[in-house]
Design brief:
globular; five-stranded parallel beta sheet; Rossmann fold; alpha/beta; two-stranded antiparallel sheet; about 35% helix; single chain
């Protein structure tokens, strides 16, 4: 039996080389979802050419359609649960944060807001971003991050540039 009140949906994407189960263990979202009444999905990324779990965010050699995969998950939840389709959110750590930005740009008709922890926008995501509505964005990022440098890298836009894009768009 479906709940009478439509529930929000939160995706929580793991980082590069991590897993859904590890992400589930350190985020603490399960307890929050149970008390706040939202549906929580911790998806598992596919293996890249090196055998590492990942999300296809425009860098590397991946051809996985993770946007389509996410759309399929939203469609499944909508068909099987009482989903509040105006409250679908994405968050993620590192590569999962990059994935949240991809969804804000490429699946914005479904995604209400995102939060990225130590992620950024890849150059292909930044250059092709075309959201359909103003999108709230939360970015959590340290200036001393050696993996995804705050100032940017060949695979990542600088965080100030990412936030300037969203401020300007919104």
């Amino acid at each position: 039996m479906m709940q009478s009140t439509p529930a929000p949906l939160v995706f929580c994407f793991h980082g590069y080389g991590s897993s859904a189960s590890v992400n589930l263990s350190y985020t603490g979202f399960r307890a929050v979802a149970d008390t706040a009444g939202f549906i929580l999905i911790h998806p598992q990324g596919t293996l890249d050419a090196t055998g590492t779990p990942h999300w296809n965010v425009g860098w590397g050699l991946s051809s996985v359609d993770d946007v389509g995969f996410t759309q399929d998950m939203i469609d499944y939840v909508a068909a099987n649960y009482n989903l509040n389709s105006e409250r679908v959110y994405s968050t993620g750590m590192s590569n999962g944060g990059f994935m949240s930005y991809v969804l804000a740009c490429e699946l914005s008709n479904e995604i209400a807001a995102i939060a990225s922890v130590t992620g950024s926008m890849s150059p292909p995501t930044a250059s092709g971003c075309s959201p359909s509505h103003p999108t709230p964005v939360l970015q959590i990022h340290g200036t001393d991050d050696p993996t995804v440098p705050y100032e940017g890298a060949i695979f990542a836009q600088g965080i100030d540039d990412v936030l300037a894009y969203w401020v300007g768009y919104n």
